[in-house]
Amino acid sequence: MVVDQVPRDFTDEEIDRIFGALADTTRRDILRQSLLGEQSVSGLARNYAMSFAAVQKHVAVLERALLVTKERRGREQIVHSNPAVIRRAARLLDAYEDLWRDRIARIGDILSGPPPQENSRKDVAP
Amino acid sequence: MVVDQVPRDFTDEEIDRIFGALADTTRRDILRQSLLGEQSVSGLARNYAMSFAAVQKHVAVLERALLVTKERRGREQIVHSNPAVIRRAARLLDAYEDLWRDRIARIGDILSGPPPQENSRKDVAP
DNA sequence: CTGATCTACAACCATTTGGTTGTATGTTAG
DNA sequence: CTAACATACAACCAAATGGTTGTAGATCAG
């Protein structure tokens, strides 16, 4: 059962953890693997030239960032991706880009002169 | 003049640096500030409860991640944002999400039975 | 039951990170 | 010219990161 997939807005600390988790090539690859299909931690670990414990730690970082969840199945721990969080991170970056776009649009307005439909004079007779 | 805005594909190290730079609340705010309007490093620094040198370091991290550039103007160093890199990071996350979407679409295909237009038998007479 | 497998976690280590202070250098204002 | 300002950079420190090995507990196969 999937609970709490995209609940509230992220806190600054959560965004820190999300981008921090994405700032490592191995972790991005683990995320990619888990998006392509659920796998056990040991199954994932076999793909990388590092110890099982190291991969385990990387999965834990992704988990604290809410990018993946783990579900125990017998003696294995299955890693599920959480694409909703990835999507929200992408939208967050879009929002940053929009800030810039809006600024450029405003500059464009200034350069092309005040639009005639706007009346900002204070001394207009009623 | 703006050069090399969105040249080649990013290397893994560059993507590490981009997400790493975004993984800090102060740096995201500096980025936001510079998207809203160019500012000097010292102008930016006045917004934060830390030393000028600390802010200088944060700007340097954003710069190594290609998210901002600096341009010297007199005795000041003006920080320009590079929205193209932000945009490419967002598209990168979209691509991860697409991996998942494609997988889900394939699972849907399996559940609804093989589509009749696909012929995968090996023993078809010519 | 026994042995192999999967996971968890602790302890340790080297490097990086995020902050500080201090010093030096260039630039502008007056 | 001189003083104030903006920057650069080095040295230092504590904490986090990314890796290792080792130990121990569950669970499954035979």
From TrEMBL, chains A, B:
<feature type="domain" description="HTH arsR-type">
    <location>
        <begin position="7"/>
        <end position="101"/>
    </location>
</feature>
<protein>
    <submittedName>
        <fullName>Helix-turn-helix transcriptional regulator</fullName>
    </submittedName>
</protein>
<dbReference type="InterPro" id="IPR011991">
    <property type="entry name" value="ArsR-like_HTH"/>
</dbReference>
<dbReference type="InterPro" id="IPR036388">
    <property type="entry name" value="WH-like_DNA-bd_sf"/>
</dbReference>
<dbReference type="InterPro" id="IPR001845">
    <property type="entry name" value="HTH_ArsR_DNA-bd_dom"/>
</dbReference>
<dbReference type="InterPro" id="IPR036390">
    <property type="entry name" value="WH_DNA-bd_sf"/>
</dbReference>
